[in-house]
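**Archive record**
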Amino acid sequence: MNRYRSHNCSAISSSDVGHSVRLSGWVHRIRDHGNLVFIDLRDHFGVTQCVVEVDQDVFEKIKLLKPETVLSIVGDVSPRDSETVNKSLPTGEVEVRIKEIEVLNYAESLPMPVHGDHDYGEEVRLRYRYLDLRRERMQRNIMLRSKIISSIRKRMIEMGFLELQTPILTASSPEGARDFLVPSRLHPGKFYALPQAPQQFKQLIMCSGFDRYFQIAPCFRDEDARADRSPGEFYQLDLEMAFVEQEDVFKIVEPVMNGVFKEFSDWSVTDLPFPRIPYSDALLKYGTDKPDLRNPINIVDVTDLFNREDVEFKAFKKVIAGGGVVRAIPAKAVSDKPRSFFDKMIEFTQSLGAAGLGYIIFSEDSGKGPIAKFIPEQVQREICRRTNIKNGDAVFLSCDTPQKAAFYSGQVRTELGDKLGLIEEEAFKFCWIVDFPMYERDEKTGKIEFSHNPFSMPQGGLESLLNKDPLDILAWQYDIVCNGVELSSGAIRNHRLDIMLKAFEIAGYPPEELKDRFGALFSAFQYGAPPHGGIAPGIDRIVMLLANEPNIREVILFPVNQMAEDLLMGAPATANIEHLRELSLQVKLPKK
C-alpha cells in the first residue's frame, strides 16, 4: 500500500464496503454531532465522508482539528444509511469509519474559507491564491484549461502542424502595446524585449522552409487590465502556414474551434463554415468589429432619410452637414414600456459621451415621441420598412460622426439586447470579421498609420499601394469572434520586400528604419520567402468562454490584479543596488 493512500477521495464505492482503506487529503468540513464527528476529507479528485465515534481513541484529537489541516486516515468502508445517501457525490453511498489518523500538517485559522462558495474580494483571493485554487470551482476551471490545451495540441498535430518554440528574450516589435524590457548584463545600456507575440519568428519559420507551425505561446504586453484581458502575460494558440490564402487558414481554424467548443460544452456551436462579415458591414449592422451574434438586433443607416427637405429635425441635419450619419436601432415590442425605460436609454447613451439619443414609438395611428412631430409619416414608414419594425415597436436613433455613431449605436444594441432578454442562451456564435482597412488616420496628428497588423498583405498588392488612397486600401486581415469576444486577429502576411517597403513608407517608415527595426524579415524576404498566413486565438479567452466565467482571471492559475501586481509573490518589487549596478542601471523615479 502507498504510504499515504490506497484510494483517492472520489474512488471509494459500494464495492469497497468491508475493506480497509487509507486516504489522505484536506479537512474540507467538520461536523460535530456530539457523540459523532463527521469529517469531509477532500483531495484533488473528490470528497469522502469519514466518521469517528466518541468511544474511539482519536475522537478528541479529531474534534480539535481546523479546516484545511492535512490528514492521512485509515478506516473501514461502511454503507451509509439510506436517508443519509448523498447522490451528488461519487462516494455518497459510503463512508469511512476512522480507526487511525495521522496529521500530516496542521492548518492555522484561514484568511478565507475553502468550503462553500463565499464571495471574497480580489485582493484576498489573489494574495492567498493557493487557498483560492483549492475551491471546487477553481479546480474545475484549471482542469478545464489543461484539457482544452491538450485537445487543441492533439488537433493541431493531427493536421500536420509541427510544435516549435520561439525565443522569449528578443527584440522590440510594434504589436500595438508596450514592451516589457529586460536589461542585458553583458551589453550595458541595451535591452531585450519579451515578445508581445511570436510574429516575426513565425514568419521566419515559414521563410526557413517549414510548412505548418504552431505553439501554445506565452505573450507579454504592458497594458491595462480588462475583464477579457489579463495585464502582463497571456497564452495563445499561435500558428502559421505556408502557401495559403485567407480561406485556407479559415478551413484549418474553424474545425479546431468548432470541435473544441463542442467537446467541452453542450451548448450549440455555429456550424461550418462560420459567417464572414466585412469590417464595414460589422460597424454598420452591429456598431462594433466584435459583434455578439446571439443578439438579433441589426442597426440600419437612415442618414439619407434625415437629410430630406421635408424632415425638420435640425439637430440631426446639422450633424449630417458636417459629415455625420444617423443610425437606427430597432426595439421590438416596447410600446407598453413606461417613459422611464426610454429616459434611461438616453441617460445610458449620454453616460458614454453622446449628446443624446432620439426615439420614435410606433402605434396604430402614428409615431410618437419627442422627435416624431419633426418627421413626416412617409419617412417614418420608410424607417419601419428598413428596420423591419411594426406597430408596438420602437426605433432609437443615434446621430454623430461615423465612428462615434457606430460606437453609440453598438452600445445601445447591446443594452437593448440585455434589457429586453434577447440574447440567445446556451449558444456559441462564431464569425469572421474580414476586409479590415490597411491604414487609418490618427485623429490627433493627422498621420496615416497601420490600422491593424503592419505585416499584412494589402488586397491588390503593390498596385493598390501605388494607385489607391491609403484609406481605401483593404488588407488580408481577419478576426475570429465568439459571443462578442475577439478570440484572435490574423492575416495573410506580406512576403515581398518591395511591397513591404512601400507599405511601411506610406505609414512613415523610411527604408533605413525598416531595415534597422525588422532586419531579420528584411533580409529573409530577399531570399525566397513563400506566401504565408496565420492566426493566434487566445487560450485564456477560449477557456473563459467555455467555463462561462465573466472574468479572465478565473481561468488563469496565478493571475495578477488590475494594477498588474502579483500579490502572492510580491511583484513587481524594487531591485537592490548591487543588482542594478551589475546591470549598469540607475532608477530615477517620476516626481509625485
User: Anything to note?
Assistant: DSSP finds 18 helices and 24 strands in the chain. Residues 291 and 484 are 5 Å apart (CA to CA). The chain has a mean pLDDT of 94. The longest strand covers residues 20-32.
